[in-house]
Design brief:
The protein has a single domain, classed as Vaccinia Virus protein VP39 (Rossmann fold). Helix content is 44%, strand content 21%. Helix 5 links the parallel strand 2 and strand 3.
């Protein structure tokens, strides 16, 4: 199954309802700020891998005067991001479609910052993508990744397996050590590795409460059928359980090209 088959327009809107306007991953603005904690952002030229509906790109461009290029495999998301770009950010953000892991047709050759928030778990073979990021980074540029990781066994347990079934997703398990080895093999120096699992547990607990409240007052009825909303809550509860018991981990990697 291709990623754009999983992320249909209706499913994207359901995720946005859970995460916040323009967002396709947990935490909203708090999650973005936490991802880039202690990282200089002002006036950077950045590449967002898996930019979704553009929420992260819009926030960074507006808050830190950055220029952000969003890269997406999903044509509908690219078109929607372009459509939703605020007038004040015209010329500061752009969105590019690419279904390849290499030779991206992008407006810049040297980025100060490349980042990906909660996306690369969908990519089975990350080596080619990492090589392309290495090529596109400026000599002193940083690559920042927040991603879902499995245990060292590189397999999902029952809770994430339940989520995969409920949401009809394809997620590829990778361990912390495996991730680090892959980055190093592709000529990145690892500056820091941070376990964000407890923070993402709180983010997902908040999503569960938000969606449970929506059932009571029929909020989001324009994007969720009643059975879909209940299934979505079950999915986020599975994420919370997986994070609580260590079946799922969320790590941030900050690396620089060698």
């Amino acid at each position: 199954m291709k990623l754009d088959d999983e992320y249909t327009p209706n499913y994207c809107l359901q995720l946005e309802a859970a995460y916040g306007k323009g967002m396709m991953s947990e935490g909203g603005v708090e999650g973005i700020e936490y991802m880039f904690d202690q990282i200089s952002l002002k006036d950077k030229v950045a590449l967002d891998i898996g930019s979704g509906l553009g929420g992260v790109a819009f926030y960074l461009a507006e808050t830190y005067r950055m220029h952000v290029t969003g890269l997406e495999v999903n044509p509908w998301m690219v078109a929607e991001s372009q459509k939703q770009t605020p007038k004040s950010l015209k010329g500061k953000v752009d969105f590019v479609l690419s279904t390849s892991s290499s030779d991206w047709s992008l407006p810049y050759e040297n980025y100060d910052l490349i980042y990906s928030k909660g996306v690369l778990v969908h990519v089975e073979d990350k080596a080619e993508l990492f090589q392309e990021c290495h090529r596109l980074l400026d000599e002193n540029g940083m690559f920042v990744i927040t991603d879902w990781l499995s245990s060292e066994k590189k397999e999902w347990g029952e809770n994430i397996s339940k989520l995969i079934e409920l949401e009809n997703l394809v997620l590829f398990p990778e361990s912390k050590n495996g991730y680090q080895e892959l980055l190093q093999k592709n000529d990145f120096n690892i500056l820091s590795v941070r376990d964000d699992s407890s923070v993402y547990q709180k983010f997902n607990q908040a999503i569960c409460l938000r969606l449970q409240a929506a059932i009571a007052d029929s909020a989001f009825s324009n994007v969720f059928a009643k059975d879909e909303l209940k299934a979505s809550i079950d999915g986020y509860q599975s994420i919370v359980k997986a994070l609580m018991i260590g079946e799922l981990k969320v790590f941030r990697f900050v690396v620089r090209k060698r």
